[in-house]
Design brief:
This protein is an alpha+beta fold. It is 30% helix and 14% strand.
Length: 660
């Protein structure tokens, strides 16, 4: 079983993101989204900075450095004196240009001036007392001289080497003892390897931005302000020296800087909570009832509910929500309680592996009524497991059903209403409307594993973080935009050929040299997915090249292919064979050349992309069937294996002509 028996839906779709708006541009071509600071914060900021603006969003355990805590009103990137709030232009610069080497996107291509103003106003509401103080930008020195030699000497004289070290590599004698305002270990930057993180409008103002860091300090960190510690011209010289040795903003350098790990204990508490199902950004009681860990039993239905309303069965939900039920029935959510999973659960029950059973059911069969046992958490006890008197095998087979997402304590929950789509009101069965249903962090608990639970540097399941740091998050595109368009409940992904095709672009070139060598080059681009393609380790795809003759017959020996996916095996522990997934906007290439044999008969190259959506599970079920199994479990695994094989398809099949 893969990790927690993950069989999540691959999020692969081509999303229309609308017209991009430049920071200083005009919004005439397309109407800009509403300039409502609350809504904009919810869409673009909450994932990292949290509901309360305290830096504890649902992505908290996945980020380093941690997102800014807005409650104090202290900001790193300022042009104002230490202790004062930033100017509006300081905030604007960060929102528009982002922070290189971190998860903080630049939103200048997405948000209009008016929207940025609305977000700035929203940020100020988190620390109203701080922003009551007036702050003006400090003046730049009049005589700017890039005296690097003088700057290097001053770097030592002003004590910078105590933290950053003699070679500015972050290894000064004080470095191991440094902590930020929250008490976390805060190692100083290696200035020779970590690219400049301050938001910059243009490449030419790097020295100026370094100067502001030196003069104003970085609030919330051990980096002090040097305003008044030396003449402004000297501080400019220090900035010039740092600019001369700093890392450049290559993609490799930025990738490396974003992977800097916290100290060993930095996020232990948050990650333990995340593993238990609690996500810090889900801050109020209603949201915690959805994602606060194992779902508690619903209890006795209120007397005022009708039989359909007092049921957790999806068939009953379909009486009023028939469109959604039809869509759900064909989805992987409905099949999350598949024979392959249930066979494993039966084995866990027999062995008394209750923790493993509940770990799998956390996403595949999350309702308490779908489990034969109840945990201490579900029973309100200190420890242990007990039999569940309200267990329903029929509900277990429904997988992730309607109530899994929409019912808690018999209270109906759902997204905000869409205008002109109202239903006939049911006063005795009200619904609680939550914006959470339209955010990607709604999907996070079952589509992300903690950052410490990694293999070869990445969690076994990393979809939420891939989205968070990919191109769609910065455009405000949530998982629901692609996978629940118009609030559909089919969640199409890698199992749907058309959805997969929408996520990729193929480019091909072929030729024959004078010596008769036939060369073919194919690129598969992730042009539509807002995460890696494929994002999970369970599917795999192959791009292949086959030379064919004039009759379309394959030429023996003239074949090449490359696997696309994360290839994992379990041999007493997880082992990664390779990771050839394609990040958003990037490509995977297959190139091959042939000369001998019947290559002279070649007229075309057949380019194919074939997909096995359950490739890992196919291998897993085959290995299970080699064991001695009870008849019921064997039948379930055989059915599951056949299902994985039936899911194979060819997504792309093209002939590329090769001239003589």
């Amino acid at each position: 079983m893969l990790a927690r028996s993950w069989q999540p839906l691959l999020l692969v779709a081509l999303c229309a993101t609308g017209a991009a708006l430049a920071w200083a541009g005009d919004e005439a071509d397309a109407p800009a989204p509403q300039a409502d600071g609350e809504q904009l914060y919810d869409r673009f900021c909450l994932a990292c900075h949290g509901i309360a603006g305290d830096g504890k969003g649902p992505a908290l355990p996945l980020l380093w450095p941690q997102a800014r805590n807005f409650l104090s009103g202290d900001y790193k990137w300022r042009t104002t004196s230490s202790g004062l709030p930033p100017t509006d232009e300081d905030l604007r610069r960060t929102i528009v240009f982002g922070v290189p080497g971190t998860s903080m996107h630049g939103f200048g291509d997405t948000l209009s001036n008016t929207q940025v103003d609305a977000l700035i106003a929203k940020l100020k509401t988190f620390a109203p007392r701080k922003f009551r103080r007036s702050a003006t930008k400090l003046a730049l020195p009049e005589n700017l001289s890039a005296d690097v030699s003088r700057g290097k000497a001053l770097f030592a004289e002003l004590g910078c080497t105590k933290c950053h070290g003699n070679e500015a590599k972050g290894d000064g004698p004080s470095a191991p003892m440094l902590k930020d305002d929250a008490g976390r270990s805060a190692s100083p930057y290696d200035l020779t390897e970590i690219p400049l993180r301050r938001p910059r409008a243009r490449s030419g103002d790097a020295t100026e931005q370094i100067y502001w860091s030196v003069v104003t300090g970085l609030s919330g960190t051990p980096m002090p302000a040097f305003e008044g510690a030396a003449p402004e011209a000297d501080l400019w010289a220090v900035a010039s020296y740092i600019e001369s040795i700093r890392a450049r903003e290559s993609k490799e350098a930025l990738d490396k800087s974003s992977q800097i790990s916290p100290s060993a204990q930095a996020f232990d508490k948050e990650e333990r909570l995340m593993k238990a199902g609690y996500y810090p950004g889900h801050g109020d009681a209603v949201e915690r009832s959805l994602f606060g860990g194992a779902i508690a039993p619903q209890g006795t239905p209120p007397k005022g509910l009708t039989p359909a309303q007092a049921s957790l069965d999806a068939k009953r939900c379909s009486r009023c929500h028939n469109k959604q039920a039809r869509e759900w029935k064909s989805s992987l959510h409905a099949k999350a309680g598949s024979p392959g999973l249930v066979a494993q659960l039966i084995d866990m029950e027999r062995r008394g592996s209750w923790a493993s059973l509940q770990s799998c059911q956390r996403c595949h069969n999350p309702l308490a009524e779908q489990s034969p046992i109840l945990s201490a958490e579900q029973r309100g006890a200190e420890k242990g497991y007990e039999g569940n008197p309200n267990y329903s095998e029929n509900l277990r087979d429904q997988g992730l059903n309607c109530a899994s997402c929409h019912v808690r304590n018999w209270q109906r929950l759902g997204p905000p209403s869409v205008p002109a789509r109202g239903r006939l009101a049911l006063p005795g069965y009200p619904v609680t409307k939550l914006a959470l249903y339209e955010r990607s962090d709604f999907c996070m608990p079952c589509h992300q594993l903690p950052s410490r639970n990694t293999l070869a540097g990445a969690p076994l399941l990393n979809t939420y973080k891939e989205w968070l740091e990919g191109p769609y998050m910065s455009r405000g595109v949530q998982c629901q935009h692609c996978h629940m368009p118009d609030r559909e409940h089919s969640w199409k992904g890698v199992h749907d050929p058309e959805t997969f095709r929408e996520g990729v672009e193929l480019s091909m070139i072929a030729g024959r040299s004078e010596s008769g060598t036939v060369s073919v080059r194919v690129k598969v681009k992730n042009a539509g997915a807002g995460h890696y393609l494929p994002t999970t380790p369970t599917p795999a795809a192959w791009v292949s090249i086959q030379l064919v003759d004039a009759e379309g017959k394959a030429i023996g020996g003239a074949y090449a292919e490359k696997r696309i996916g994360r290839h994992l095996v379990y041999e007493g522990g997880w082992k990664q064979i390779e990771d050839t997934r394609i990040p958003p906007g990037e490509s995977l290439e297959l190139a091959a050349a042939w000369k001998s044999g019947r290559v002279s008969e070649t007229r075309s190259a057949r380019i194919r992309v074939r997909v096995e959506p359950d490739e890992y599970y196919e291998r897993f079920y085959m290995s299970r069937l080699k064991r001695k199994l009870p008849a019921k479990e064997r039948a379930m695994f055989e059915e599951a294996l056949q299902g994985t094989r039936d899911s194979h398809y060819v997504a792309i099949d093209r002939l590329l002509s090769i001239e003589n």
